[in-house]
Every structure is written in C-alpha cells, then in structure tokens.
Amino acid sequence: MIIGIDVGGTNIKSGLLDSNNNLVFDQSRPTGTTMDQILNNLEEIVIELKNRAETNFGSTISGVGIGVPGVVNKGLDHVFKCTNLGWNDIPLGKILKDRTGFDVFIDNDANLAALAEYYIGSLKDKETGVLLTLGTGVGCGVIINGKPYRGGNGLGLEIGHMVIGENFYNCSCGKNGCFETYASATAIVKHFQKLVDDENVKIDFEISSKEIFERAQKGEELPLKAVERYTDYLALGIVNVINVLDPEVISLGGGVSASGDFLMDKLTKKVTKNLFVEGFPSAVINYASAGNKAGVIGAALLAKEEISK
Ligand SMILES: [Zn+2]
Q1: What number is the average pLDDT over the span 257-283?
Q2: Looking at the domain 2-113+292-307, which fold is it?
Q3: Ligand 1: centre distance to CA 266 (Å)
Q4: Which residues are within 8 A (CB) of 304 and not within 5 positions of it... i.e. 6 or more apart?
Q5: Ligand 1 (single-atom ion) residues, CB below 5 Å
Q6: CATH assignment of 124-287, among 3.30.420.40, 3.40.640.10, 3.20.20.70, 1.10.357.140
Q7: What value does the mean pLDDT of the chain take?
Q8: How far from the centroid of its chain's Cα atoms is residue 74's Cα?
Q9: Are 303 and 297 in contact (CB under 8 A)?
C-alpha cells in the first residue's frame, strides 16, 4: 500500500491507496501552525497509517507521497516555498525519510490533483490535459503525454500567475494582473465588493463566490455584472492555455466549479468566441470529477509512479 498526504493550510488529509488505486482508508486532522508541529503531525500520520495498513489490511507500506500548496524542486523532495504555511527551503523528503524510514515524494498539490484526475477522473486516459483549481488562488496541474509536466526546474506552468491585464488589486505574489486575481473565488468576491462600494449599494447578505453565483443565476443585477467580468477573464485565460498547449481537456475544480451549467454555458460561449482558429476542434472544458480526496489519491499515485521507475 501507499500513503497519500495532502497538506492544506487548515487540515492535513491522508489515506491509504491499495494496488488497484482504491482509497481504502482516509482521515483528516488540523495542520498545526509551527513548522515543528506540522513535521510532528506528518511523522505521526505516517506511523499511524503504517500500523493501520498492517493491522487492518495485512499490508506493508512501499512509499509516501505528499502534496503541498507551494513550489517543489524537480527532484520531488525539497519544498522551495510554501507561502500559506510560511515554509522556505525545507528538505521535507529527507526529514521524513530520516524519521520514518520510508521513501517520500513531494509535489505541488495542484499537480497531484491533476494526476488523480488523469487516473480516475475528468482527464482519464487523455494524453494532454490541464486542471485549473479555482479557489483562494488558481492552481494548475498539467498532464503531457500521460505524465505530469513540471517544466525544466519544477515550476512549470504556473498559469495562475500568467499576466492577463491590469487589475485593481495586486496578486499574493506581489505582481499585478495575474490570472488568479481575475479567475479565483477570491477574485470574484473582491470585485463584487468593489462594485458594492463604487455604486454605494446596500446588501443584506455575506459576500461569497457561492452567493454571488446563486444570485446572478436568479438575475440580480450586481452579482450578474460580477459573473460577466469573471467569465470574460476566465475565458481569456483558458483561450491562452488553448493557444499555448492545445490540450484535449481543460478541467475546472475548486469551489467555483460548484456553479454547474450556469458558469459552464457562459464560459464555453466566451471561449469559443475568442478561439484563434474559429471552428477548428479545441479543448473540451469540463468539471473535475475525482472528488475532494483527489489531493490524497494524487499524492499516493505520485509515490506509486516514482517507486515503479
Ligand atoms: Zn501572481
């Protein structure tokens, strides 16, 4: 069996993947705040899952895969930067191998979600596919020739930070105009708040991307205005991805993807209108389908792939 771990800003999700790629056990616990706490939690999780594999499944562990919300080296053992967790230059693979004895492989969480989609979800059996996760930011994982693409140094295809305009607020990376400042859940909330302030409107609800989409669907003017701008820019970013990569599929995951046909219909119309070659076959756009455990499954699949090399 393989251990998969998905380290998020709030919770660490983890589980056991069997040889048929079934997640046979999974759990979640708070991430912790300090570096020491998080490392101790990760060590405990590995030991606990090793024991569980032996006791409940009569199985041993052949490796550990970990997803982190940050930048990882191409050797898959060193976390270069993880803004959410305040990590810089952490040799996480070596630290956990020393503490647990297992081989540990690490990758960016969006890359691993894409790997899970490739094995069991919306990118299944596609040679070339892109997963965009529309949440706090815009995460991106790319599969090329059936393999996760990481670029020359491990920083390949940070589509969320592709610059597509001049925006009214700066990106978390410090630059202005990044795709994620237009296309993340955070982006539509910030823009809606700006509309409310600019037009001096009184609202009686708490602003969230879910609320904005629901109200837009009912035809409310201001939410609809926010959704139109949101889908304009999301389509623009997707057209850029199509022009550069020409993937077979572009899947959308993250909170915003719960908006269903309402979002998808607007989006596909706007993408089609902006294609470089009109009428030529282009990427199918769909929603991610591997579910909310994709990060854990993808992490385990990473370790499985690396061990079998
Ligand atoms: Zn940025």
Answers
A1: 90
A2: Nucleotidyltransferase; domain 5 (3.30.420)
A3: 25
A4: 2, 17, 21, 62, 63, 65
A5: 161, 171, 173, 175, 178
A6: 3.30.420.40
A7: 94
A8: 18
A9: no
